[in-house]
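Hi U.,

Before I forget, here's the chain from the pilot set. I'm dumping it here mostly so it's searchable later in email.
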Amino acid sequence: MIFTLTGLLSGNLLQKAIDRAKAGSKLELPAGEYHGNIIIDKPLIIEGKSQGAKIIGDGNGTVVTIRSDYVTLRNLTILHSGQEHERVDAAVSVKKSKYVTVDHCRIDDCLFGIDMEQVNESQITRNWIRSKPFSLGLRGDAIRLWYSNDNNVSANHITHSRDMVVWYSHGNTIADNFGEYSRYSLHFMYAGRNEVLNNTYEHNSVGIFFMYSRDSIAKGNTIKSSIGTTGLGIGLKDCSNFTLRDNTVIYCARGLYIDRSPFQPDQNNTIANNRIVYNSIGINFHSLSINNYIHGNVFKGNIENVYDDDQVTLHSVKNRWDGNYWDDYEGFDKDGDGIGDTPYRLYYYADRMWMSNPNIKFFYASPVVSILNFLAKLAPLSQPIMLLEDPHPVMYEKELEKGGAQ
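Structure:
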């Protein structure tokens, strides 16, 4: 049986009401201020009638600590955690639990937002989260999954935090979230079988970065305006059996960053039907990165569509490129089938000074550098090296809307 307590809680009596409540009870909080810090160690629902119900911490430690299965927090405002990183002071801390729900809560002035350690099959949905007003590196993570599996983290708004991290965690769905003005809007480490769907990340240092992970998919995400000269859209480091599909990466210093991926020699990654547009570099290859299948993508408006920073032993050419749209393709389509009659080939010229000297990149669009680039193609000082070959370049962007190369 669920017991409902309505309008009875005020001041510092919230913890006493939690202690008195039977397992499975529901506590309804009218608008007002309730003193944290509180501990929930039994199945319980705490629901505010509106976000006017505020649980305010004492500025030391975590505001709401959950140590039970089947706990729900809904329609609450949670404020004023401590500020110690080594203690992971948070708005909500959940450990060794399952079937926990944090829904439609507003979290502010808390170092970490929602900290989940060994938490499974739980729901983190529709929350608004902001860290403390510290410099970027001193903030805490908005949502932190640590050894936590099969959770749903969806429709949250994250702003002015440090990172959202998914570490040693598998089978999670990260969908329809919005993140802004943070460092890593989404960072994976040693994680597998995760789905990253339809998120929007703007004005962060890094959009989505996967490290030492496998068997995951990122689909339908938009990463826009990653901040700074090293701002990054989507990165893969030591990742295998990944699919990046139908994403848009725009206005970043580097759209995609591929570092030693795929890591497993017998596996591949698929990068398909993405829009990689108006970045300084479309795809940046670093270290040994071969056996990626890159097809049906749009490369448009980038200063450089593809760059391989190992300029001696190029690895970009060892990936499979097919059916992409290249805005600098100079071939023809005499038979009108929408596919270029000749392959698209991209070359590296040794005399393109800005590649080895980033200071010159500032002048890249100037008339003088444009003339130098034209002369390098017309009469290169040395034999150019091919970065990639796409045997079936698509002539028009609209051809990709029909499904791209198969």
